[in-house]
Design goal:
With 174 residues, the protein is an alpha+beta fold. Helices cover 19% and strands 44% of the residues.
Length: 174
């Protein structure tokens, strides 16, 4: 009986640790697979700066790279997701109402409180909580997002059914 109890306690600790959301901080690397019209491309993002302005560096197969820069106003209040195609060695400065691969703090709060938020003039409704992810679906569209349940860094970890034909999936966080 003691063995069963010990095994059960160990299993609970293991499952609790396994279900924890990844911590995203300066230096974190995010490895995605992007799909666009049947082609897949692995893209690696690195959190280069995270104190006030968010700077995400990107690399494709180690051949090309650049940065996306999001100002504090965007991180707090943005209502649009910018999917501008990256250009090698270019710093893309997003507008005050735009983010890239993350939703704003305001949108995350609305999602938590009202189980819905608006991005790109589209209403996203909370479908379910899946571990450390919030699965949302677009009202009257086919788009689905899986967002990291982390108010400090509500990262979009997966996109499916995008009207732009751009789908992606986070494969690894280091």
């Amino acid at each position: 009986m003691k063995r069963v109890t010990c095994l059960l306690i160990f299993s609970l600790f293991f499952l609790h640790g396994y279900s924890q959301a990844p911590v995203v901080k300066q230096g974190t690397t995010l490895k995605y697979i992007f799909s666009l019209h049947g082609q897949t491309v692995p893209i690696e993002f690195s959190v280069l700066h995270l104190t006030d302005t968010l700077v995400l560096g990107w690399k494709i197969r180690g051949l090309a790279g650049g940065t996306y820069i999001m100002v504090p106003a965007a991180l707090q209040h943005a209502v649009k997701m910018n999917f501008i195609q990256p250009s090698p060695d270019v710093a893309i400065n997003l507008k005050d109402d735009e983010t890239f691969m993350i939703i704003s703090t305001d949108a995350f709060r609305k999602l938590e409180k009202e189980h819905a938020f608006v991005y790109d003039n589209t209403v996203y409704n909370l479908k379910e909580r899946e571990g450390n992810m919030l699965h949302v679906t677009a009202k009257d569209e086919t788009t689905e997002w899986w967002i990291l349940n982390n108010p400090d860094f509500p990262l979009v970890c997966r996109i499916k059914g995008s009207p732009f034909g751009i789908d992606c999936s986070l494969n690894d966080v280091k």
